[in-house]
Amino acid sequence: MTFRAVKPIDATSYGIDIPENSRNEVDSFIAAAAVAAPALAQQSPKERAQLLREIATQIEASRATLIESACAETALPEARIAGEITRTTVQFELFARLVESGKHLGVVIDKADPNYSPAPRPDLRKMNAPLGVVAIFAASNFPLAFSVAGGDAASAIASGNAVVAKAHPSHPNTCAIVEKAIKAALAKCKLSQDSYAIVQGPDPQITHWLALHPAVKAIGFTGSEIVGRILVDLAATRPEPIPVYAEMGSLNPIFVTSSAIADRSEALAKGIVDSALMGSGQFCTKPGLIFAPNNPEFIATVKSHLATLAVAPLLSKSIAERYSKAISHLASQAKLEVASGISTEQGFGVTPTVFITDWATASQNPELLEEHFGPTTVIITCKEEEFLAIATSLKGQLTATIQGTDADKPESLLALLAQKAGRVIWNGFPTGVAVTTAMNHGGPWPASSSHTTSVGTDAIYRFMRPVAYQGFSQSVLPKALQDSNPWSVPQSIN
Length: 494
Hints:
The protein is an alpha/beta fold. The chain folds into 2 domains: 293 residues, Aldehyde Dehydrogenase, Chain A, domain 1 (3-Layer(aba) Sandwich), CATH 3.40.605.10; 173 residues, Aldehyde Dehydrogenase, Chain A, domain 2, CATH 3.40.309.10. The protein is globular. This is NADP-dependent aldehyde dehydrogenase.
């Protein structure tokens, strides 16, 4: 059985016929990866860093074909795809630097001490080790940066794991180009090309085959809460349960103070709309809830700016249909003002829409407080004194933002939002996630399934586990734990 990509711009097919992988093929990919994994695990920090940089080089060498393919399969502009390619290669370089330093191994050595209290201490040496085979699931909205060589895959490879990645059926040709690049890098580094494979096909059962295979030791996922929950539940039913690191989206609330509106009403109103519509509203960091005082001028600017804007077609027919159905349903609700932008008619085009209501209405209509993937947001008017109670009622978030001025005293709200979100923002917008060590991209459920990050170098620790060695002679210890320290990695001793 084969399938083809569909161009969102006009709903026509694109690229070659892609064979859908059978269960036997998926099983064989995973089994081969398990055989290849030990060679990756035994690499020195220098060798691993070389592999990561070679992957970045091979992906960069494929830039022209990746831009052509990804633009066709997603309807995203060339500048966006070019930026994603750069972000993808930068992620590999960041992990290369970390791995080269050896810090990720977390080496701790406590030498034998007969006088240790409360009892004599044996020689103990601990370091982080890779898990084996990791299953990665590509996201629909980032065909490169969160796809088969995105942050999840890069961090899994950087930590020394073999990877079997589920290509997203919306951009199978792009995923195939990336697979070819990674396999070329493996070959150049004299490693088995079985260390990495992608699985193609729209069959939902592929998700089950990957999640339930006994050789898979962890899962990385970026996507919807529905599929994230399926993966978490599947992993829990296995004879050997495994961790699922799922990033599942968020409402990313913005709390706007009266002083912020008085200071910069027009810029703030336009900035919120632009952030909500960025990438056609298909970012997991899109601001989906805006809490603000009832200021007619501010609301009027939102509506007038929105009326001038159109967005690119959505990523797939199913996403566009779900969006349009949800918007039509919400628009029929009472006590709800609807503001619209310019409709895009061709392909999987939709109409950007903003809903305006008050907190009394929104609090009684749970659908208004749910994520709707696409170019929409909900502005909820309320008193600033209600901010704390509103924030308390919200579920876990990837981000939470306060738009204010120096005249505000945000400490109480900030403390509460820090409990609710993985990243809190002052006078900024949540769209745009910097790829850096200090970034945290994750949050309490349902934003993500664990208290970890899927962006930044700390993402590597999701796919490692600590191993302690007790009483072994120097000759049999892993090199990172030996007193001679031949890899020159950081060692915390005694």
